[in-house]
Design goal:
36% of the residues lie in helices and 20% in strands. By secondary structure, the chain is of the alpha/beta class. It has one domain: P-loop containing nucleotide triphosphate hydrolases (Rossmann fold, 3-Layer(aba) Sandwich).
């Protein structure tokens, strides 16, 4: 095992979650991490685990193509079997140096697919435990890969609950009234705890036109900025974001929040 310094591994393999409503630009923001994004063509250094129907339809219009494992038409045992097979193939692609970034698009639709399948096999408490196990297995397999991993997730409103529910939310840094990851039960905990950043994405209107931005420190939506060099509003561009973090680390001005 190679000995490295903490500065060397800063954002070496990013784990980030982009949260927002449908059509907010989550998928395109992930594509910006590719070294081929600005020249168009095939994003051959990326690999999509696609669960959202039509999730990559916008790529063709923009002259972009990407390698993809398409899970959109799979359900039941076919889905869980395909997940395990795709992971093994992805592992080979990463280890060969072909794939530098994996995008899971989206966690919300993956979650709903797993839930629909498991509802045919388990009752209430066993159901949630089985769902949690599937998320754990999927996440920890993906997490081990030596590449960037980006997750997209839809958002939902966190309602005020009873005292127990509110205490659980508070323990995870959440507040009723926020919009949070749309994942069933406790499944979000793996992605929440292990994401270096949780980035709400919004569309804003500027004098220059419409712009998509990340809001790393937004209090109205579940977020995690982590790196103090990030502003309240950052362009929704992972290449620029990584460059800013790595530059701060190189200068010695990077601090974690």
């Amino acid at each position: 095992m190679k000995l490295q310094t903490s500065k060397e591994i800063t954002a070496q393999y990013l784990r980030a979650t982009v949260i927002g409503p449908p059509a907010a630009g989550k998928t395109f923001s992930c594509a910006t991490i590719s070294e081929h994004y600005r020249t168009k063509g095939i994003l051959k250094d990326m690999l999509w685990f696609l669960f959202d129907d039509g999730g990559l339809d916008g790529f063709a219009e923009c002259g972009i193509d990407a390698p993809v494992f398409d899970f959109t038409k799979l359900s039941g045992p076919q889905l869980t079997k395909a997940l395990r097979e795709a992971y093994q193939e992805a592992k080979k692609m990463v280890e060969s140096g072909v794939t530098k970034t994996i995008v899971v698009d989206s966690l919300t639709v993956l979650d709903k697919g797993l839930l629909a399948h498991l509802m045919t096999l388990f009752q209430k408490w066993d159901l949630y435990n089985a769902l949690l196990k599937e998320h754990s297995l999927f996440f920890h397999n993906i997490k081990k890969l030596p590449c960037h991993v980006l997750f997209t997730v839809h958002e939902k409103f966190l309602h005020d609950g009873d005292d127990v529910q509110n205490a659980k939310s508070k323990a995870e840094g959440l507040t009723p009234g926020q919009t949070i990851m749309d994942i069933t039960g406790s499944g979000a905990r793996f992605y929440r705890a292990n994401s270096s950043m949780i980035l709400p994405i919004k569309t804003v209107h500027t004098p220059q036109g419409v712009e998509r931005v990340f809001l790393p420190w937004d209090k109205t939506t579940e977020s995690k900025g982590r790196f103090a060099c990030l502003d309240k509003r950052e362009p929704a561009d992972f290449t620029l974001l990584l460059a800013k973090i790595q530059a701060a680390a190189k200068e010695g001005s990077l601090t974690l929040s």
